[in-house]
Amino acid sequence: MNMHVEVAATGTVAAAIPAGGLDARAKRVAEIAARHADAVDREGRFPAEAVAALKAERLLGIQVPRALGGEGASMSEIAELCAILGRACSASAMVFAMHHIKLASLVTHGIDSPWHCGLMERVAGEQLLIASSTTEAGIGGDLRNSLCAVEADGDTFRLTKEASVISYGAQADLILATARRHPEAATSDQVLVALLADQITLERTSVWDTLGMRGTCSDGFVLKAEGLPLAQVLQKPFAEIAAQSMLAASHLLWGSVWFGIASYAVDRARAFVQGEARKKPGQVPPGALRLAEAANELQAMKSNVVAGLARYEAAKGDPDSLSAIGFSIMLNNVKITVSGQAVDIVQRALSVVGILGYKNGTPFSLGRQLRDVLSAPLMISNDRILSNTANLLLVQKGSGKLLSA
User: How far apart (Å, rounded) are the C-alpha atoms in residues 207 and 209?
Assistant: First the structure.
């Protein structure tokens, strides 16, 4: 593999970066991910080959600023890679997306912390895989509340968290966990804690055996850490982290993964209809109309994701804009809309190819894609997001303008 060496802004020599642009590197990973996608799904196992390829292509650290050894990739660039991977293997793409969602929190909010800057250098240099621990037994998927707490003892702390889900927790090199700031803090007074794999113990409490997205290996664990430096706790309130980076990164990168899945399904339907047309020249195949409908909805889905990315890039670096009610509503709407569109598009594509899409092992099989994309409205539940939007709308003033929020 051709490589080149880049000099970081600090003057230190960064690790060699594989040849080609980000898209080319992601496409090489996608080729590997696609070869193993069916086995990952069938066996419900971690997409180890794809993640090894992501590390080899040095794509796990691209969001880290150049001054810290990364490539300073934008959210839009990362979203494009999510879509490329989504076409090949949903689980691999989702692992990549979730990693960069957590890395976005570090990049946006850890730059003033020497310890977290050092951690970002390690992410870029060592290609550390980051997982998230926000869900917790007793609160479910409400990431804005925690029961566990950081228990400080001088300059160190301990933490015990009953995490109902930690996606690929057993395979991660680093986990970013939410917790109350201290044992007397309110459940909503949270911080984000960085925990390296060799600093914690994980006791598995449940196994991820699901309809789709099986390769994310989102088992449940009791997470324990003890005697760790308090410097590993990001002092900025998690409420700000969630509003200014995590919310946007989650909805936009998840949406990009779902777009990749949906676009693959439409391509399979297109190939099927084109094959039918070649068999009977001069006749429009019966599935052509359904294909046109799916392609139309795919374009609308793409427009939603692209518009959301544009709004985020324009607001990036402005905490007031990122925390604005209208911005949060926009992101909520992107998630709700594209998650529903993704499911509908794959179902439409399946109706076009018919039994050949329903069967496994054919050139038009879509069973895995359909099962995977059915998770979209459930991550985070669309009903929960709509409830949040309803509360925000009670205090928002509409502009009534076409080209502004």
Answer: 6
Tokens of 132: 């998230």
Q: Which two tokens stand for residue 264?
A: 């693959």
Q: Of the residues 80, 111, 128, which one is the last residue of a structural domain?
A: 128
Structure letter (DSSP) for residue 216: G
What are the φ and ψ backbone dihedral angles of 195, each rounded to 5 degrees?
A: -130, 115
The whole-number mean pLDDT for each consecutive block of 10 residues of the chain, a chain of 405 residues, reads 40 68 98 98 98 98 98 98 98 98 97 97 98 91 91 97 97 98 97 98 97 98 98 96 95 98 98 95 92 98 98 94 93 98 98 97 97 96 93 82 64
- Pair (144, 230) in one structural domain: yes
Is 222 within 8 Å of 160 (Cβ atoms)? Answer: yes
* Structural domain includes residue 400: no
Q: Is 127:121 a contact under the CB 8 Å cutoff? A: no
Q: What angle do CA 93, 63, 257 make, to 5 degrees?
A: 20
Bridge-partner residues for 151, per DSSP? 158
Per-residue confidence (pLDDT) for residue 405, from 0 to 100 = 58
User: Are 50 and 33 a contacting pair, CB within 8 Å?
Assistant: yes
CATH number of the domain encompassing residue 242: 1.20.140.10
> Do you know the residue count of the chain?
405
- How many whole angstroms separate alpha carbon 217 and alpha carbon 148? 23
Q: Is the pTM of this model over 0.85?
A: yes
